[in-house]
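Schema walk-through. Below, the input block comes first and the output block second. Nothing else is stored per chain. Lengths vary across the set, and this one has 354 residues.
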Amino acid sequence: MRLNSSKRSQKKGLSPGSLVHVGERKVDQPRITLIDYDGDQFLEKEVATVEECFPFNETSTVTWINIDGVHDADVIEKLGRAFGLHSLIQEDIMTTSQRPKLDDLETSIYVVSRMVELNGEGKEIVTEQLSLIFGRNFVLSFQERPGDMFDPVRERIRHGKGRIRKLGPDYLAYALLDAVVDHYFVVLETVGERIETLEDELVADPRQETLHTIHALKREMLFFRKSVWPLREVVAALERTESPLIQPSTNIFLRDVYDHVIQAIDNVETFRDMLSGMLETYLSSVSNRMNQVMKILTIISTIFIPLTFLVGVYGMNFEHMPELKWRFGYFFVWGIMIAVGVGLVYFFKRKKWL
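--- output ---
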């Protein structure tokens, strides 16, 4: 997972509410899709201009407007003006490094969360800001790019499954948050499998690449935690709010999302502890391996010290050294050296040093 490279310094000196996109531009043009429904009717279409959404602000049906791409200030400003969004909320939508939070604006409620998913190869966790705003009869969702985890929600609306078409925009907002949180477990399951594979590798053959992988996973879990932990406060605040925009019947579903967020946080903390333990295991394994190598080298050196002494003595070539004239002196010295070496090995094994 990459560090957030968004430079908020480009907004230095601007007045509050200035619409400047902060973050990576991930689409060329914003894509706007609209779903309008109630218990009896359903409409879904992709609109060419933001002005086509304005009439739905006055209907009695529930309207869900999804915008993929938050870099176009004109689209954000027009939509904000039509649905009564404060300029500071519009600014937050275009600043894609927001921490998950909740703002109760009386006529609407603004929720920021982080969508977490794996990249195309499934080796890196990427996050994306999701801004949700819901009011009396509408839900606005702002994403940085096309592609999300809301297809099951769309299918339930299209086919009238469950209670979603019978309830209001607060339930739709809950359903979207629930989809985001459920996808956390999809990512965590994949990360858990990677950690299990890494554990087996750590026991069998720890390498330098293993250490790099452990550090990368620890960093990803840190970012995951920063995305999930504040969401607990957001969902708890939604459940406790006395806003008339949230029906009492929705509170039990929000409580369920809160439980799921707690479970996700527990999994993240468990994985972080496991990775810390694996890092310590790796360092201990490397240290033990180094000790084994030093042990072998020390034993070899110890064996050759007396042999070197013998060779040194008989390499002095004194004129009156009797063994130099002895016919079997060479073989005798070799026998002594072999006996010394074997004796030392036997001694080391008796001491359980080998």
